[in-house]
Each structure stands twice: as C-alpha cells, then as structure tokens.
Amino acid sequence: MKIIKIIAWVLTSFCTFFVSNELSSQTHKKESLEHISEMITELMEEGDIPGLTLSIVESDKDTILNFGYADKELLQKVTSTTLFELCSNSKAFTALAISELLLENKVDPERYVSDYIPWFQTTYKDDRAKIKVKHLIHHTSGIPWETISDIPESNEKNALKRTIETLKGIELSHKPGKKFEYATINYDLLALIIQEVTSIPFEVYMQDLFAKLQLDDTTIGIPKDNLPKASGHKISFFNARPYEAPIYKGNNAAGYIISNANDMVKWLKLQLGLTKTDVWEAIKLTHVRDETVPLHNMSSYAKGWEISLRGNGEIYHSGLNPNFTSHIILRPDDNLGIAVLANSNSAYTSLIADRVTRLLVNEKINEKFKPGDQNDGLFSMLSIAFSIYSLIVIGYIVFIVVQIMKKERAYEKLTWKKIGKFAGLLVILSPFLLAVYLLPEAIAQFDWKAILVWTPASFEMLVKLSLLGITVSYIAFLIGTLFPEKNFYKKRIPQIILFSILSGVANVLVIIMVTSALDTTLDVFYLVFYFVLIAAVYLLGRRFVQSELVKINQSLMYDIRVKLINKIMQTSFQKLEEIKKGRIYTVLNEDVTLMGSATGTFVNLITSIITIFGAFVYMFSISAWSTFIIVITMTCLAYLYHVVGQKANVYFERARDERNTFMGLVNGMVDGMKEINLHKIKKHEYVQDMSNSAYVFKDKNTTADIKFVNAFLVGESLLLLLLGLVSIGLSRIYPETSFFTLMSFVIVLLYLIGPINGVLSAVPQLMRLKVSWLRIQKFLKDIPADMAETKLEEHHIPSSVVHNLKLEDITFNYAAAQQGNKRSFGIGPINFEINQGEVLFITGGNGSGKTTLAKILTGLYKPHSGLIRVNDETIMGTELGECFSVTFNPLYLFKKIYGISLDDKNEEIQGLLETLQIQHKVQVKNDEFSTVNLSSGQRKRLGLLKCYLEDRPIYLFDEWAADQDPEFRYFFYRELIPQMKASGKIIIAITHDSHYFDVADKILELREGKMNLISNNSQVFS
Q: SS3 for 299?
C-alpha cells in the first residue's frame, strides 16, 4: 500500500512538473510572439510595407502571423492564403529542379551550357568563353549582374528563349568559375536547360514539382485563380504606393514563383527535413556551398541558397522584385525556419526576418541598423527642390509675359550675337543633358526602361523635373534676351539667385560624390565625368556669382549715393544747416560702402544655407539619428548667435553714433585748422577730443566683435566636439556602424565647417548692415527735400534784365529754443527797393543780420513773412537764386566751373584775368581753373571772375573787398562797381568800408536785425 502511494506521488509530481513546464513554455511563447508582432508592426511602418506574412517553423511547431493589407485601397487584410511573389527565393525551387536532374544524371554540372543550348555563346576579353552548368548554379559564370536590365518584358510562350537570346555573344565580366557575381539570369539559363533536357515547358515542369512537394497553392508566373494575390507596391516619395510591374515571363525561374504562408510552412519543413519526401537528397544537395571561389560578405553561394560562414549555420536568401520582397532563413541546427513575404520593395523585409530569427534564438540584435529606402528619400528631396526651382522659373516667365503684355518690356531685334548666345547656351547645356541620359548606365549599367522599373518613382520624377528645370531655364533665357529687362538690378538678380542655387546644389553633390566614391562599384569613367561636371557647375557658378556681385555692389553703392546726393540737393540750405556734417559724411561713405556688400553677404549666406541643407538631407538618408544630433547642435549655435547678436547690436549702434561725432570733429579739424593751430593748448585739447571719440568708436566695435568671436569659438568647439564624437566615439558606442557611414559623416562634417563658419561669420556682418540700413533710412527721412525736384529744362529763370528788386515786410526768426519770454534772434521787418543800375551797400556790426539777409535775398532762407518781388512779380526760393551771382564769405571755390558755357569765351576770360590781375596765377582750361590754391584775396578775385562769367542780373558781394590789398580795393570800388552799374546790373555789397559809401546809391544799415535805409547820404526812414 505504501509503495502504491509513493508511485502515485511520483506520478502526480511528474505530471504537475510536466504540465507546469508546458504552461510556462506556452506563456513564454505567447509573450515572444506578442513582442515579435509589435516589432514587425513598427518596422513595417518604418519600412513602408503595407502587408506582410510571417511563417515560422520550430521543430514540430509552426506559426503564421499576418500583418497589414493585401490591398489597402479595398481594405483586404493579409491572410495565410494571400499570395505573394517569392522574388529571388524562386531560385531555390529552380535549384531543386536542377538538383533532381543532377542526381538522375540527366544534367552534368561539369558540362558546358552550349552542350545543352548549342547556339549559346559568350566571350571574355574578346575570346570565346565556355560556361559550365555549375557556374550558373553558383553564380560564377561571369555573366554581369546588370544583365537583369536586358530581360525583355513579355508574357509570350517563347519568353524564356527570348530572354536567353539577349545573352548571345555577351562579354563576361570575369572568367567563368573564378569569381562570384550574382546575376539573376543565370537561373533563367538553368530553366532553359531543364526545358531542353526534359522536353517539357519549364512552367509545366515546375507545376509538377510543386504537386510532388504538395505545395497546393504555389504556382509560377500566374497566381492560382481561387486565391487572392496581394497588390504590389513600390516605395516612392516616402511611402509605399501601388505599382503594377511589367510581366517578365522569361525570368519566372529566377523571381516569379508565387506562394503563400501556408505553403511556406510546408517549404520550410521540407528544407529542414521535418517532412519526409522523395526529394530530400536533392534538397540537401541545394545546401552544399561552392568552395571554389572566395567568400562574399562572409557567405558562400550554394544552389539557390546563401550559406553563412559566421558560425551560426544559417542558410538564407533574400528576394527583391519591383513591387514585392521576401526573405527566408533556415537554422538547421535549431530546427528553425523563417519566411517573410511582403507586398512592397522595402529593404526592411530582410531586416524583419533577421530580427525575428535572432529573437527566437536569443541572439543580440543590432537596433541601430537601418537598411535605407533605396535612395527614395534623396530622390524625393531632390525632386522637391527641382520642382520648387521649376515653379520659381515658371513664375518668373509668367512675370516676364505680364510685363510684356503691360508693355513694360519691349522686343529687341534678333541679332547674330543673340543667336550665338542661344546656340552657346545649348552647347553648355549639352553635357548636362548627356549626364541625364547616361544616368541609368552610370548608376547600374541599366537602360532607361529597366531603371524606371527598379528604382523608386521619385527617381523618374527627379529626371523629369531636372529636364523641366533645364527647359524652363532655357525658355526664360530666350524670352529674357528677346524682351530684356531695362533695370540693371532686376536683370541680374534672378541670374545671381539662379547660379547661387545651382552652385549650392552642386556643392552638396560634390559632397555626395566624394563620400559615395568610398563605397561604390561605379565605373571610374562615370565617376570622373560626373565629378568634373558637378565641380564645373560649382566653380563656374561661383565665378559668375562673384563677378556679378562685384558689379551689383558697385552699382548699389553708386545708386544709394546718388539717391542720397539728390535728396540732399533737393533740401534747402536752411534745412540742411540743421544736419550735422559728420552724419552726412558717415552716411555717404561708411554706411553706403557697407550696404554695397549686402548683396554679397546675402547671396553667400544663401549658398551656404543651401549647401548645409543639402548636406543634411544627404546625411539624413545615411543616418537619421546622427543627423538629428547635428541639427540640435546647429539649433543651439543659432540660438547662441541670436542671443549674442541682440547684445552686440547695442554696441554696433553706439559705435555708429560715435562715428558721426568723429566725422564732425574731422570736419572741424579741416575747416578750423587756422584757429586750431594758433595755440598749442587748443590743438592739444582738440586732438584729445578726436582721440577720445576714435577710442569710443574702437571700443564699442571691439566689444561687439569680441562677443561674436567668443560665440564663434563656442560654435567651433561644438563642431570639433561633434567631429570627434563621430570619428572617435561613434564606432565605439555603436560598433555596428559601417565604415562607409562613419567616413561619410566625417567627410560631410569636414566639408560643412566652411559653410557653417560662413553662416556664423555673416551674423555680425548682417548686424552692421542692419545698423547702416536703418541709419540710411533715418537720414533719408530726416532730410525734408523741401525743394521740388524739376528737370533742368523746366526751371524758370527770370529775365536776364531785372528792372527792380523789392522787399516788402520781410521778417525772419531763427527757430532756436525760447529763452524765457525772449524770442531767438531774427531780422525785420525789412522794406526796400533797388532798381536796375543801382548800388546797395549793406552794413552793420557783427551779428546784426547782414549774412541772414543775404541768404534771404538769394533764396537760401525762406522768410517767415513778407514778399520779395522781381520786376513786380513775387518770386521765392530757388527761383530767386537764379537772379544772383554771389561771392559769399567765407568763399568756397570749386576748381571746375559749373553751370557756365565757356565756348568761345577764351579771350573774354583772359581779359578778365588780366583785369583782376591774376593772369600770372591762374588759367582756365577744360572748364576748370588751373589752381584754386591761392591767397584769400586772389580766391575772391576768382569768385568775381565767376560772377562775370555767370552774368546774372544781380551781383551780391559779401565782404568781398575785406581780403584785398588797398590798391585793388580802391580799384574794386572806384572802377569795377561803376562798370557793373553802367552795364545795367544791380549790385548789392555787404561791406564795412565806410570811406567808399559814396559809391552806393543806397545804404542799408542793420542793428540787431532792424534796418535803417539811407539814400544819397540822406536818411529816408528808420
């Protein structure tokens, strides 16, 4: 009884343990499958896979997981019966068929292909080369991989033979049996051998094989009628989009067997030997690798399978069709098989298969590895860039057409020179058109038809948009040349922007070319051709931009200066006196010069930004997370510069204000040199003021610049730190990072240091530009330009004979600040009349208002009240000045004689020079005085000469005789003034020479702005 209890206890414990372990295993498996499902869903979204099915075989257990949609538009979900193209995993079936024939001795692997297909011939280095059957099986035939592009699109009965006929006489890339080179058409050749040996159409033969293997839903070329086939997709513009691929019946053996998850479970069990079959020996034969050639990627090819030599015993194969992908992995040692079928050409299908396998066998997963998007991101971004460019150019063309319709542009006759330009541009464009034409051959040695099937639709769009960009650019050039823009800037700025963009894009492409050349199989000819072409675009574009910028800069400075000068010259003397001279000097010189560099700064900034943006797009296509780190770094730099810029701008503003003060002191130094040099203490103090002003200007600029230097160095340090992190730390933090990715980032970052520094160094320049721009605008606003601008021919010049000049109740008051209840200084009321042939002397003490009255008489000041009449007609402002020839005190004498025609006046001028006794000092040549470097008295004589030549009806002399020697002063009063009077001139002279008052017909005395008029030495009124 006791023994029975013990046995019962043992049995109970055993059952409990077994059930417990079984339940634990099932729970673990359920959790594992949930984790796998989450991972696959995430990777499908990341890899743009609409629908996917996963078949798992583990010993005697099998699992099928289905994800997404077989047809997204119809919302048909993937099921275990949904059919998918097996792509290159079809080769394992063809290999199994050929292996059966090998075992039956119906096909000999050592025999030549030409033994089975007599008309098939190939060459190697111009000599005939014979390929063996085993070379086809192991992809060592030497047939180039790019022959996939020669497979004809066909659904005809003889499609297989037509496909092989494309190889007749082909030049092999290497000697047969010496090197592995994957060429899908090798297995099409095997299919034709099977067809020739068995005398059974290949598709029929394969259907019999599927039946033997009990793969009831598997077909070749055409899906089973009663089962749904997934809708194929091709990744384009960042998403998987439905794509109906061409039919390549001649390539069925290599890529177009169709199956589903149910049959994949059966196929995996057959491959692992878990299902008994008559073809097991043939299956095992397909797993035997070729040991006669070097490895590729630590793998060796068997028959339709890759054999991994990484120590995991893995047998695998991936498959890629234009709109489907697949990946199958066998782990015979673990009795594990994985099959992933997807209805998209995504590279993530293989990644999913690899990760699922590693999860199931508890191997480390490389979470950072991203297989890419077949350059769809790069093609898409470039397509967007070209579309934006094309839209801009089209908009520009529309703008030109609108201008033509508005008659703002006129047609210019077609000349041979213009025809030469049109033809020359076509010659320049021809290498670029050739570059577009050669793209398929350069990229993959494909033709255009094949490349458009295998590449993303974004590539086709990129090509079309690039051609569109070239076309619309040429059209814009044609229209712009035939209907030219007259405005200098509007004509050149679009060209500068265009070439800046092209130069920036070319700069990015140079980076891509350099980094891509590190890991590419492209022919050297194409690498050199495209590199030279891109470099030429960059260099010639930069040269054009820089040359045009020189013209733009100089023209811009000229135009701004002329605008400022015109505004100044349209401002009355009275208003202009209120503006400090230093401010005028600084605006016209420093601010304008700085603004002239604005175009260069902006265009270089745009070019650098385009380069940086393009480089980021390229880096993003290599590694998104690394690019994200760099973008964050750049954002920090931009914020740093923004903060520094706000603080430094204050110092730039203060420095600019101090510049005005300094230039005012310079003006005082030049104009007041006599006074300054009289006393050493005065000179010392003035020099000290100038030094202090210059120091403040230097100090504010230095402070602002140093702030930017500090920020620049912080930015430079961050860039260097980032470069060190990528070059030193990246490979250690993420050992899975490929050498190509690492080198690409290092090269791009090194290349970007220049453009990034260009952007950063442009910030202080932009700050200065902003300050100068605001100062120029404020200066223009502060100048009232209160004198109407009229054309020279529209000027009203009064009669050359003035019969009388009359002032009626003229008053003028300086608009200075009020001092208590006492008004600032003024003159008036002034009333007098002077007639033709009369002389008026104005006298009075210093500060009595003589010069103010002279400025009112000549129209330089506008009286606050009263009227001035000439020949009984009221005249004010500039029109009044037209009546006068004046010598002011102090006198400024221009070397060039303005406003006077000196034609046929040589004798008159010579006579006047002799009369004024300066013929030995000065000559007049080419409308200029030979010198104005004379004594004050001699300079005033030249001023009098100018009055004679102007020959205005009224002469006004302000203290003219004060600097003359007694003899010439006598000559002036006793000889020259009477001569002027006799010629009918009105003479007004400001003078203190009381002993010559008898020369005057009238004398006006001013005392503190009040007048006293005397006629014929008799008081008239007070």
A: strand
Angle at 956 between CA 951 and CA 961, to 5 degrees: 110
Residue 469 is predicted with a pLDDT of 86
pLDDT band, very low/low/confident/very high, at 819 (cuts 50, 70, 90): very low
Long-range contacts of the stretch 310-314 (C-beta < 8 A, 24+): 312/363, 314/357
Query: What is the pLDDT of the chain when averaged over all its residues?
Result: 80
Cβ within 8 Å of residue 716, ≥6 positions away = 757
Tell me the C-alpha distance between 399 and 797, whole Å.
45
Cα(891)–Cα(940) distance, integer angstroms:
7
Nearest to 699 by CA among 760, 733, 654, 736: 654
First vs last C-alpha separation in the chain: 160
How far is residue 658's CA from residue 364's CA, in Å, rounded to a whole number? 68
User: pLDDT band at residue 314, thresholds of 50, 70 and 90?
Assistant: very high
Question: Do the strands 826-835 and 839-844 form a parallel or antiparallel pair, or are they unpaired?
Answer: unpaired
| Residue 34: burial class (beta carbons within 10 Å; 0-12, 13-18, 19+) | exposed
Element housing 329 (H / E): strand 325-331
CA torsion through residues 344, 346, 350, 355, sign: negative
What is the separation of C-alpha 74 from the centre of its chain, rounded to a whole number of angstroms? 43
- If 0-12 CB within 10 Å is exposed, 13-18 middle and 19+ buried, where does residue 10 land? exposed
Q: Residue 279: CA atoms inside 13 Å, Cβ hemisphere, count?
A: 22
Residues near 126 by Cβ (< 8 Å), separated by ≥ 6? Answer: 171
Per residue in 956-1015, pLDDT (tens digit) is: 999 888 888 888 889 999 999 999 999 999 999 999 888 899 999 999 999 888 888 776
Mean pLDDT along residues 127-132: 90
The letter for the amino acid at 262 is: N
Beta bridge partners of 404: none
Dist CA 138 CA 292 (whole Å): 10
The two structure tokens encoding residue 575:
């208003």
Q: What is the DSSP letter of 1000?
A: -
Tens digit of pLDDT for each residue in 159-173?
999 999 888 888 898
Q: Are 884 and 989 in contact (CB under 8 A)?
A: no
Return the C-alpha torsion angle 38, 39, 42, 48, nearest 10.
Answer: -130
Cis-peptide into 223, omega within 30 deg: no
Count the alpha carbons within 13 Å of 40 in the hemisphere toward its beta carbon: 27
Kindly give the interhelix angle for 598-622 and 524-569, rounded to the nearest 10 degrees. Answer: 150
Cis peptide before 440 (omega within 30 of 0): no
DSSP string over 342-364? ESS--THHHHHHHHHHHHHTT--
Tokens coding 962: 């004060």
Q: Which residue has the higher pLDDT, 819 or 706?
A: 706
868 or 719, greater pLDDT: 868
Q: Where are the alpha helices (DSSP H) in 623-672?
A: 624-671
- The answer to whether the CB of 1002 falls within 8 A of the CB of 1015 is yes
**Range in 20-29, 434-443, 802-811, 897-906 with the lowest mean pLDDT:** 20-29
CB 974 within 8 A of CB 823: no
From CA 373, how far away is CA 132, in angstroms rounded?
A: 37
Tokens of 707: 């702030």
Tens-digit pLDDT profile for residues 508-540: 777 667 666 655 566 777 777 888 888 888 788
3-state secondary structure 84-143: EECHHHHHHHHHHHHHHHHHCCCCCCCCEHHHHCCCCCEEECCEEECCEHHHHHCCCCCC
Tally of CA atoms within 13 A in the half-sphere of 694 that contains its CB: 8
The amino acid at 628? F
Hey, is 871 helix, strand or coil? coil
DSSP 169-195: TEEPSS-TTSS----THHHHHHHHHHH
